[in-house]
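Researcher: Final request for today, and then I'll write up notes for the group meeting. The sequence and the SMILES for fe (ii) ion follow.
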Amino acid sequence: MCEVATAVDSLLEYYNQIKHGNVNQVAEKLYNLRITSREAPSSLPWLNNLLRDRLHKHDHHINPMYIDLLANRLDKQRLEAFISEYYWGSGYGFQREVINLVYKTTDDESFKEYLKLILIEEQKPRPHYMIFQEVITALGFQLKQRKPISLKFVQNQHEGYSSNVYHAFGYALGIEVEADYQISLLACALSNLYPDEISTHEYFEIHIDTSGEEMHAKETCLSIEKLIQSEQDIQTVIFGFDTAIRDTGTFLHEIRETLQ
Ligand SMILES: [Fe+2]
Ligand SMILES: [Fe+2]
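Model: Predicted protein-fe (ii) ion complex:
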């Protein structure tokens, strides 16, 4: 009986073919694979374009922190520091301090319903921030004390998700698309040092297969489709998306500064 290749296996196989090239081009190819070439989630062309092209327009896919990771420029101590703060901002912070809290306080029914869906996804098969803690341990790292950087990022995300519903949905879409690229890139970068742990840990499979971040982004698009009525609404969604990418870029930049 032949084993079916997992989504992570396929990603890493592709990465191993391309990884010896110029690092910016490697990032470009990963972005194309994960974001540009995916199936169109929406019937609205502007929304598909937002999902596929916008992050690239910001050059976010080649931000210096991601390039350092892909180029294996971090020693173990710096990698541990990066992963810890990333956990506090994008793992624990996102799940416990952003979507969980906004879900309790939002008074917009469509956004509440959407957040409920994402909250359920983030619990399967158990809370993803806890699974990410297991990754940290599996790689031989210890979770370091939280820095103000991730607190600021959480505050920014909280504002983005609590803003008016168009902005909030655009922000959420930015976070979901970014997470797909971010987690894929992290899996590839870490596979250089920890190939077995990355290819077998369920954290990566959960997020990288089509029912992971790709589906979250699709669900976000479908909610946005139902809501949009005017050009003004579209512009507000796009603004929310841009804000999420900028906030994430700032978070990564600030972590990188502590590693110099
Ligand atoms: Fe997750
Ligand atoms: Fe997600």
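Model: The chain has one domain: 7-259. DSSP finds 13 helices and no strands in the chain.
Researcher: Thanks, that's everything.
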